[in-house]
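Q: Sequence in, structure out?
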Amino acid sequence: MPEGQPAAVRSFRDLMMWRKSMDLVVACYRLTQGFPASETYGLVSQIRRSAVSVPANIAEGHARKRTGDYLHHLSIASGSLAELETHILIAVRLGFVGEAEVDPILEDAHEVGRVLAGLIQKLGMRKP
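A: Exactly. Output:
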């Protein structure tokens, strides 16, 4: 394989957006560790669930045999990213975390979102 060329995608694990979204899950779990115990079943749960939904839907969509199914799951992952950002911004407004603490997480989420949007657009053009 020529230098600089991406490796062939054999599994969802080969997808950069999946790997980045897995890193995002870890960052969200770490972020929420310091939240008040009263938020365990509230905002903590919502942040963690929406974060986990992103790589899970990327993986499930990639495993599907039809492009339409893949697009559907990528769309869910994209929606989960928007949900995650909203929950994080609520946590900032409530004073559970500071903006400086969440800025790197939000930037990573935006990066995953840009890649997702590009793939959705590309696949949508050739959807059977």
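Helices lie at 16-32, 43-63, 67-93, 99-125.
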